[in-house]
Amino acid sequence: MQYNQRARWSDQVARAVFFLCAILLVVIILAVIGFISSKAFNIFFEHGGTNLKTFFFTDNWDPTGVNDPTGNGNPGFGAGGLILGSLVITLVSVLIVIPLALGTAAFFTEVAPRWLVNFLNPLIEIFTGVPSVVIGVLGLTVLVPFLSRLLTPFAQSLGIVGATAGFGWGAAILVLVIMILPTTLSIAIDALHAVPASVREASLALGSTRWQMVCKAVLPAASSGLGTAIVLGLARAIGETLAVELVLGGNALPRNLFSLGALFQPSINITASIAEIFPETSGVSQDAYWTLAFILLAITFLFICISRYLASRSVYQ
Amino acid sequence: MSLQSASPLLLPQSERTADPTQRTRRLRRLHFSNGLALSLLWFVTMLVAALFVAIILNLVWTGLPALTSPAFYGTGAQGIGPELFNTFYILILTELFLFPISLGAAIFLVEYARQGWLTNVIHFAAETLAGVPSIVLGMFGFLVFSSDAHLSISRLAGALTLLCLNFPLGLRLFEQALNTVPRELREGGLALGATRWRTIRTVILPSALPGIVTGLILTAGKIIGEAAALLFTMGLFNPANVFTLNTGLASDTLTTKLYYLKGAGAGSTGLTTAQETLLAAGISAVLILLLLIINITARSIGRLIQRKLTAA
């Protein structure tokens, strides 16, 4: 009897401890959202701050005032350029990743022979874990000089002001492609694996070729899973920091924003700006960075909600 | 199947025709587009695979000169001794929090909780946290652990930030591990009159061990590779007495050192650019090799334990 009681008691304790562990997760995410949003709007209300219009629609970002041309140290809080930079590199890199990831995933699950799958599987898994700073340094030492050599002869026709060193959105997009391709690819492969064999058999039995089977039966059946893969790729891309920071190399938007050359001149985005200057800030200038953090948080939260919605719609889990 | 013997039913109704030459031509077009599309898929995949292999080989190859010089492992300006120590230190410190907490949360979700609103809320929280950019979590850690909790820029603040960052991943991996345990084992334990906790300890955890060890190793890989979250919570510099277990020290890791060398501190490290580049290549190669080792051990340890358990 006594043994029974003690056993039941320890079961209750264990249950409570495990419950606390699980609840800690909810506490952490609420704390992240709570703390960051509590600081996010200070900049719009305090003395020396700014207003919404200036914040979102101008591009003079200099919260510490070190780059003020008048030398008075007047800060600038125009985050429009940073936001534009993040959106451009995220969207373009995902547009490049979509065909690569879907093509490779379709090949991987529908066409590839067994030995090739055994080779590619660990390769994708390893690449998912490559630290972003390593890819950034590789971009800096290999990709940036390469772009510079490649583009210098065309600098005039691309509308590049002065010589190009290869830094900029173009390099950041290519680095982001490398960073998010493995993640998107492995989720897309899971989505295609979830499509039951009966769908393929039905399609083949109706006389379709293998390609018709892939694009008319398997891909549509997995569409919401593939959508999740793309949305999570977007979420990853917008938050990617160090890899992008190392190859952006600028502190303002390029002057010729509406030409192809703008992609290959030093430029800015949200995360790089945070990584570079946030630790040196305090007071009002730091509050400006909390607003940026809140924007990133809100965008990724939106992406997660979309991916959950897509996942809830998918027929095959 | 040969083109001539194919049935006209292979074609959509609108294209069915009695004319055999026209039928053959259409079928041939179909097979041609099939071949073309499949070779395109081959090409894309080979391109991606070649890219991955080339990057890994390039990193290891350019790092080789640094890896073979003894000074690289020392404590001098061109050595990574302190960073290696810090990386493994922070790995162990983080796992001390991360492993029990995320395993506990996974046990609660898989073994105790009923599927319902609570598990939904926790899974949604996990997905959201997994999506938060690591730089934002770094700022959060700076605000909460370094400033509000007065841990300052320290290893402990870094480890707690890494806990927040890797909790969702740990939870997912350990949940997977526990879900591989067959239902019959649980029912067997409970039917013998054991409490749920005793069943977990004596039956479920041992049989989920391969998955748990694999999960532990994979989270270790993520911790070693993280940099952005540590920039504001653990700093970029080492104190003089770095080889201690003091959790209050600021210190850098392999990844943050790499960032400092080529990013924030390029040109101010007291090294020539060539030396900086060589050191950076060496650190990249070390990180890639660690990652390879981690992946290979995760796979083989899982298999090894599986074999031992099933043979015994």
Question: Would you write up a description of this structure?
Answer:
- The complex is a heterodimer of chains A (317) and B (312).
- In chain A, strands 1-2 form a two-stranded antiparallel sheet.
- Chain A folds into two domains: 40 residues; 263 residues, MetI-like fold (Orthogonal Bundle).
- Chain A is 71% helix and 1% strand.
- By secondary structure, chain A is mainly alpha-helical.
- Chain A starts with a helix and ends with a helix.
- The N terminus of chain B is likely disordered.
- Chain B folds into two domains: 55 residues; 238 residues, MetI-like (MetI-like fold, Orthogonal Bundle), CATH 1.10.3720.10.
- By secondary structure, chain B is mainly α.
- The two termini of chain B are 51 Å apart.
- At the A-B interface, helix 1, helix 3, helix 4, helix 5 and helix 7 of A face helix 1, helix 2, helix 3, helix 4 and helix 5 of B.
Please give the order of strands in the largest beta sheet of chain A: 1-2
Number of strands of chain B: 0
How would you name the CATH homologous superfamily of the largest domain in chain B? MetI-like
Number of discrete helical segments of chain B: 9
Shape of chain A, please?
A: globular
* Chains forming the largest contact: A-B, 91 and 95 residues
- N-to-C SSE string of chain A, H for helix and E for strand: HHEEHHHHHHHHHHH
Kindly provide the name of the CATH class of the largest domain in chain A: Mainly Alpha
Ends apart, CA distance between termini of chain B: 51 Å
**Total beta strands of chain A:** 2
Largest sheet of chain B: none
